[in-house]
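Section 3.1: Structural characterization of target chains.
Under the original work plan, the team committed to producing a structural model for every single-chain target entering the pipeline before any wet-lab resources were allocated. The record below documents one such target. The sequence was received from the expression subgroup and is listed exactly as submitted; it comprises 251 residues.
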Amino acid sequence: MSDVRPFATADDVADAAVFLFVTLAAKAIAERGVFFCSLAGGTTPLSSYRILAAPLISSKVNWERTHVFWSDERCVPEGSRDRNDEAARDALLGKVPIPSKNIHRVPATEPDAAQLYESDLRRAFSSSLPLKESSLSSSSEIPRFDLILLGMGPDGHTASLFPSHPAVEEKTRLVVHVDGAPKPPPARVTFTLPLINAARHVAFLVTGVDKNAALRRVLNGDQALPAARVAPRDGTLVFLSDAAALTGEAR
């Protein structure tokens, strides 16, 4: 059963996402000494990032012990305004005291970007967590993010996992390259479902009337939509949604 948390407006969704981020960061650092999170791309989460960057809010996060990744990235050069990490830098990461070594950007223009990013991910988890927690000596072990933030498109895609694309069926790799994405740019790098579904907490931020049809299908378990296949094995899944997305009626 999905945990759907309804909010009146997109601003309320942004506030709820910030509260979740701050709460889970404190919990992870208290329990394991480090907070691993993955940020969502697109425009929906940017309001949350701007709120989180405000001094009174950002001071509640131990950024020295926070590691930031992205669930997907577009294969365009660093510095491009089309990159998810650039948008997050402008809204959040350039305004908080997070060490640069804790910001894990996707080397999206490299031919082996997916392999490089998976290696970086494994290395960060192995070096930052206590041995008994990391358990990543084997390539078959899957790192567990403390929080993965996700958006959802009107077609039900999430990260860069699109309906009917082979990447949705990946069972072993944690990060893959996507060719032929149905929205530009067509080349991307994305987390796979095995990595997403290993997380301790996954939160969808879904706002806007254009998401209503897909959201209804996802909540009804329509496996044709990648977002409906997000189901953490030993974690929590929550949908933070505004009234427009839930009802299909613009406010």
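The beta strands are 3-7, 35-39, 66-70, 72-74, 147-150, 175-178, 188-191, 201-206, 236-242.
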